[in-house]
Amino acid sequence: MGIPLNYKPSENEPYMNKAQLDYFREKLLKWREDLQKESVETLHHMQEESLNEPDVNDRASSETDRSLELRTRDRERKLIFKINEALERIEEGTYGFCEETGVPIGIARLEARPIATLCLEAQELHERMEKTHREE
Protein backbone atom coordinates (compact mmCIF):
# COMPACT_ATOMS: atom_id res chain seq x y z
CA MET A 1 0.00 0.00 0.00
CA GLY A 2 1.17 3.58 0.00
CA ILE A 3 2.29 4.21 3.57
CA PRO A 4 5.70 5.79 4.12
CA LEU A 5 8.39 3.73 5.84
CA ASN A 6 8.36 4.17 9.64
CA TYR A 7 4.97 5.94 9.48
CA LYS A 8 3.15 6.15 12.80
CA PRO A 9 -0.35 7.66 13.02
CA SER A 10 -0.59 10.77 15.15
CA GLU A 11 -3.32 12.88 16.69
CA ASN A 12 -1.91 15.86 14.70
CA GLU A 13 -3.37 14.71 11.38
CA PRO A 14 -6.94 14.21 10.17
CA TYR A 15 -8.48 11.21 11.93
CA MET A 16 -8.71 8.03 9.83
CA ASN A 17 -7.14 9.61 6.77
CA LYS A 18 -5.87 7.34 3.99
CA ALA A 19 -2.41 6.91 5.56
CA GLN A 20 -3.92 5.89 8.92
CA LEU A 21 -6.35 3.46 7.29
CA ASP A 22 -3.52 1.93 5.23
CA TYR A 23 -1.38 1.69 8.37
CA PHE A 24 -4.06 -0.14 10.37
CA ARG A 25 -4.97 -2.36 7.40
CA GLU A 26 -1.31 -3.46 7.13
CA LYS A 27 -1.09 -3.97 10.90
CA LEU A 28 -4.24 -6.14 10.90
CA LEU A 29 -3.15 -8.15 7.85
CA LYS A 30 0.27 -8.86 9.42
CA TRP A 31 -1.34 -9.88 12.72
CA ARG A 32 -3.75 -12.23 10.92
CA GLU A 33 -0.92 -13.74 8.88
CA ASP A 34 1.15 -14.37 12.03
CA LEU A 35 -1.81 -16.06 13.75
CA GLN A 36 -2.48 -18.25 10.73
CA LYS A 37 1.19 -19.31 10.54
CA GLU A 38 1.16 -20.25 14.24
CA SER A 39 -2.01 -22.25 13.69
CA VAL A 40 -0.45 -24.24 10.85
CA GLU A 41 2.70 -24.86 12.92
CA THR A 42 0.60 -26.12 15.83
CA LEU A 43 -1.35 -28.43 13.56
CA HIS A 44 1.88 -29.93 12.18
CA HIS A 45 3.29 -30.26 15.70
CA MET A 46 0.15 -32.00 16.95
CA GLN A 47 0.14 -34.40 13.99
CA GLU A 48 3.79 -35.34 14.60
CA GLU A 49 3.28 -35.85 18.31
CA SER A 50 2.58 -39.39 19.34
CA LEU A 51 -0.23 -40.05 21.77
CA ASN A 52 1.06 -43.57 22.36
CA GLU A 53 3.13 -42.59 25.36
CA PRO A 54 3.88 -45.75 27.33
CA ASP A 55 3.95 -43.94 30.67
CA VAL A 56 0.60 -42.86 32.13
CA ASN A 57 2.08 -39.63 33.49
CA ASP A 58 3.65 -38.76 30.12
CA ARG A 59 0.35 -39.47 28.38
CA ALA A 60 -1.57 -37.28 30.85
CA SER A 61 0.96 -34.50 30.41
CA SER A 62 0.66 -34.75 26.61
CA GLU A 63 -3.14 -34.61 26.83
CA THR A 64 -2.95 -31.52 29.05
CA ASP A 65 -0.56 -29.83 26.62
CA ARG A 66 -2.79 -30.75 23.69
CA SER A 67 -5.90 -29.38 25.43
CA LEU A 68 -4.12 -26.11 26.21
CA GLU A 69 -2.94 -25.78 22.59
CA LEU A 70 -6.45 -26.39 21.29
CA ARG A 71 -7.91 -23.73 23.62
CA THR A 72 -5.22 -21.30 22.49
CA ARG A 73 -5.98 -22.04 18.82
CA ASP A 74 -9.70 -21.52 19.46
CA ARG A 75 -8.99 -18.09 20.98
CA GLU A 76 -6.81 -17.28 17.98
CA ARG A 77 -9.56 -18.41 15.58
CA LYS A 78 -11.95 -16.00 17.29
CA LEU A 79 -9.31 -13.28 17.10
CA ILE A 80 -8.87 -13.86 13.35
CA PHE A 81 -12.64 -13.43 12.98
CA LYS A 82 -12.43 -10.07 14.80
CA ILE A 83 -9.46 -9.03 12.63
CA ASN A 84 -11.53 -9.82 9.52
CA GLU A 85 -14.39 -7.73 10.90
CA ALA A 86 -11.99 -4.82 11.49
CA LEU A 87 -10.71 -5.12 7.91
CA GLU A 88 -14.34 -4.98 6.72
CA ARG A 89 -14.90 -1.80 8.77
CA ILE A 90 -11.86 -0.24 7.06
CA GLU A 91 -13.43 -1.00 3.67
CA GLU A 92 -16.83 0.30 4.81
CA GLY A 93 -15.36 3.52 6.24
CA THR A 94 -16.49 2.87 9.83
CA TYR A 95 -13.13 1.73 11.25
CA GLY A 96 -11.85 3.77 14.18
CA PHE A 97 -15.27 4.96 15.31
CA CYS A 98 -17.20 3.65 18.31
CA GLU A 99 -20.01 1.35 17.20
CA GLU A 100 -22.23 2.67 20.01
CA THR A 101 -21.54 6.40 20.13
CA GLY A 102 -19.97 7.11 16.74
CA VAL A 103 -17.10 9.07 18.33
CA PRO A 104 -13.47 8.40 17.38
CA ILE A 105 -11.96 5.48 19.31
CA GLY A 106 -8.56 7.20 19.23
CA ILE A 107 -5.16 6.40 17.77
CA ALA A 108 -3.59 5.26 21.06
CA ARG A 109 -6.41 2.79 21.76
CA LEU A 110 -6.30 1.42 18.20
CA GLU A 111 -2.51 1.05 18.41
CA ALA A 112 -2.96 -1.03 21.57
CA ARG A 113 -6.01 -2.94 20.28
CA PRO A 114 -6.52 -2.55 16.52
CA ILE A 115 -9.72 -4.62 16.65
CA ALA A 116 -11.41 -2.27 19.15
CA THR A 117 -15.01 -1.43 18.30
CA LEU A 118 -15.81 0.76 21.30
CA CYS A 119 -14.37 4.02 22.59
CA LEU A 120 -12.86 3.84 26.07
CA GLU A 121 -15.97 5.25 27.79
CA ALA A 122 -18.33 2.76 26.09
CA GLN A 123 -15.92 -0.12 26.84
CA GLU A 124 -15.74 0.85 30.52
CA LEU A 125 -19.55 1.03 30.68
CA HIS A 126 -19.80 -2.46 29.14
CA GLU A 127 -17.30 -3.82 31.67
CA ARG A 128 -19.19 -2.25 34.60
CA MET A 129 -22.46 -3.74 33.31
CA GLU A 130 -20.83 -7.18 32.90
CA LYS A 131 -19.46 -7.04 36.42
CA THR A 132 -22.84 -6.00 37.82
CA HIS A 133 -24.63 -8.85 36.04
CA ARG A 134 -22.04 -11.41 37.16
CA GLU A 135 -22.53 -10.44 40.78
CA GLU A 136 -26.31 -10.88 40.66
Entry keywords:
136 residues; mainly alpha; Four Helix Bundle (Hemerythrin (Met), subunit A); 2 domains; 4 helices
Topology:
Blueprint: H1 18-48, H2 56-92, H3 107-112, H4 120-135
Helix pairs in contact: 1-2
Quick recap:
This protein is an all-alpha fold. Helices cover 66% and strands 0% of the residues.
Account of the 3D structure:
This protein is an all-alpha fold and 136 residues long. The chain has 2 domains: 16-93, Up-down Bundle (Four Helix Bundle (Hemerythrin (Met), subunit A)), CATH 1.20.120; 96-136, no CATH class. It has 4 helices and no strands. It has helices spanning 18-48, 56-92, 107-112, 120-135. Helix 1 packs antiparallel against helix 2. The longest helix has 37 residues, at 56-92. The radius of gyration is 20 Å and the shape is flat. The mean pLDDT is 87.
The CATH H-level superfamily of the largest domain is: DksA, coiled-coil domain
Q: How many helices in DSSP terms?
A: 4
Described by strand count, sense and barrel closure, the largest sheet is: none
Strand content: under 5%
Q: Please state the CA-atom Rg, rounded to the nearest Å.
A: 20 Å
Distance between the termini: 50 Å
